[in-house]
Write a structure and sequence with these properties.
Layout lengths: L35 E4 L2 E4 L18 E6 L5 E6 L4 E4 L7 E3 L3 E12 L2 E4 L5 H4 L6 E4 L11 E9 L11 E4 L5 E11 L7 E11 L7 E4 L4 E4 L4 E2 L2 E7 L4 E4 L8 E2 L5 E6 L11 E5 L2 E5 L6 E3 L5 E2 L10 E5 L2 E7 L4 E7 L14 E4 L7 E7 L2 E6 L2 E7 L7 E2 L6 E2 L10 E3 L2 E5 L4 E5 L2 E4 L5 H7 L2 H4 L3 E5 L4 E8 L2 E8 L4 E5 L14
Antiparallel strand pairs: 1-2, 3-4, 4-5, 5-6, 7-8, 7-19, 7-20, 8-18, 9-17, 9-20, 10-13, 10-15, 10-16, 11-12, 11-14, 12-13, 14-15, 17-18, 21-22, 22-23, 23-24, 25-26, 26-27, 27-28, 29-30, 30-31, 31-32, 31-33, 34-35, 35-36, 36-37, 38-39, 39-40, 40-41
């Protein structure tokens, strides 16, 4: 029997729809390519992702994933949410930790009853800044590096073939598949031997969502049934006051309660951040210091343990930050944010803003507001909505950067602040009607055949939320956008200068580098 060989040779531009045939089937003129790309004369499926790395909890929006590397060689993966800074834990059996700014009341909690936490004489929680929306937890109910912590009420507890469940045992939900490790078990009624125990389970490394009335199975064969809706062990705070040294919670504390006068307990208050609507965190790493800001808090720093203010007097509410010329630059900042403002720290010290090598300025040459910062080659780039200014080093410590009017490009700017991608020594971004890459000091349009479709399905409000990142494994720069056709990723292969579009089963909102 004769055999014939048929060669599959996809054309590099076989799906180019810039000049489609009038009788071409509609699907072939829809996208340049969707969920695959043509490269090296082959069709490659778009890359996927693993959802099992870390479960930060239901409805937690991650706005940034950061690889933070120290000069010592130590590396961390950090996650920024609208309310918290989170550190991935890589030790065996560990998950993640909150490293948000935290107040520690060491051996100062005298009692917890209902919604009231009382501290030792002399403590001033209100003056410390404990505020509505922050969170409290007692050390007895807390295990470092094993978030998330959950409280699950149970009844019908039966020792079965085992005994009372032990601290460290694993429990699994028979309906939801949720799992957790026991930090503390309380029995407030009945007994496990009698098959009618009821009380609370405080769980760490909890994953999944526990369901009311679902059966529970424990490591040694004990069983129980969930009684109600799970709650967080971290209790939300309603208020604090200094006269009575009290912290008032929004609802009764779900963990350990009692009075410990003379043997006071330790408690933690997690100071919650607030991120403005349609805005995100930006971050920088300078001299082994991780710095992050969101336009609504004092600029923060983290070098281990918990985050803290970088400089509460000068580094205030900056929307943008970037390292340049061995300094930290911030923009759109101030007690009342000025969208034309820019400032820089002392050379070599991002915490010092009063030294002669620090400074500030206002960019008033064009009236449009600053929408981001970048670095291209040896130049600082200050993006505005309809213009781009380039600054360069002067070699003079007291005036480290010069921004001459002759280097300001007008007519093209950034309308999507978080679309800016610094990669391969240059920057890419989204302007009012195209995608751009900076070549030298010139913004080169690259949107080509994808441009019209993108701006047709991404509205003016949603375009401000577009998030960009580099996937250097695939030689791509990518933008995630909410469109009238769902959440899509628009990717540009800067090696072969081709576009492709992808959609994912999950709600992909951010990407970044991290440790494994």
């Amino acid at each position: 029997m004769a055999y014939q060989r048929f060669m599959f040779r996809p054309l590099q531009h076989g799906l180019d729809v810039s000049q489609p045939s009038l009788n071409a089937p509609f699907p072939y003129a829809y996208w340049p390519s969707k969920n695959f790309k043509i490269t090296q004369r082959s069709a490659q499926k778009r890359w996927g992702y693993n959802t099992a790395d870390r479960d930060l909890g239901d409805d937690v929006e991650v706005q940034a994933i950061v690889l933070y590397q120290l000069k010592s060689g130590t590396s961390y993966t950090l996650y920024l949410t609208p309310t918290d800074l989170i550190k991935k834990e890589t030790a065996s059996g560990k998950t993640w930790s909150y490293v948000t700014e935290t107040l520690t009341y060491t051996s100062k909690v005298t009692s917890i009853s209902g919604t009231t936490v009382t501290l030792k004489a002399g403590e001033t929680p209100n003056a410390d800044g404990v505020a509505d929306g922050d969170y409290f937890i007692l050390i007895d109910d807390y295990t470092s590096a094993e978030e998330p912590h959950r409280v699950v009420a149970y009844d019908a507890g039966d020792d079965g073939t085992g005994d009372t469940p032990d601290t460290g045992d694993t429990v699994t939900g028979g309906t939801s598949g949720a799992t957790g490790k026991i930090k503390l078990l309380t029995t407030t009624a009945g007994s496990w031997a009698g098959g009618n125990a009821a009380g609370l389970l405080i769980l760490t490394t909890s994953s999944g969502l526990w369901v009311d009335d679902e059966p529970l199975a424990f490591t040694d064969g004990e069983t129980a049934v969930v009684n109600g809706t799970e709650t967080a062990t971290w209790a939300s705070i309603a208020s604090s006051e200094d006269t009575g040294r009290t912290i008032t919670l929004d609802s009764s504390y779900p963990g350990s309660t009692g009075s410990w006068g003379g043997s006071e307990k330790t408690g933690y208050v997690r100071r919650i951040y607030t991120t403005p609507d349609n805005e995100r965190w930006t971050w920088a790493i300078i001299d082994d210091m991780f710095i992050f800001t969101n336009g609504n808090t004092l600029v923060q720093k983290w070098t281990g343990t918990y985050a803290s203010n970088l400089n509460a007097s000068y580094a205030i509410k900056a929307r943008y930050c970037i390292p340049y010329a061995n300094r930290l630059f911030i923009a759109d900042h101030g007690t009342t944010r000025d969208p034309l403002s820019i400032a820089w720290s002392k050379e070599g010290d991002p915490e010092d803003w009063t030294d002669s090598t620090a400074g500030s300025g206002i960019l008033i040459e064009s009236k449009d507001f600053i929408t981001g910062l970048g670095v291209v080659g040896g130049s600082l780039v200050i993006y505005k909505a309809d213009s781009i200014a380039f600054g360069h080093r002067t070699g003079v410590s007291s005036t480290p950067v010069s921004i001459p009017q002759t280097r300001e490009k007008r007519g093209v700017g950034v309308v999507a602040p978080y679309s800016i991608i610094d990669f391969m020594g240059t920057s890419a971004f989204i302007g009012r009607n195209d995608f751009y890459i900076i070549e030298g000091d010139y913004p080169k349009p690259i949107g080509g055949k994808i441009r019209d479709k993108f701006f047709d399905i991404v509205g003016k409000t949603e375009i401000k939320k577009v998030f960009g990142f580099e996937n250097n494994i695939s030689n791509e720069i990518c933008w995630l956008a909410n469109t009238s056709e769902g959440r899509l990723m628009f990717s540009y292969d800067y090696k072969i200068q081709e576009w492709n579009i992808s959609e994912f089963a999950g709600d992909l909102v951010v990407a970044g580098k991290g440790t494994v």
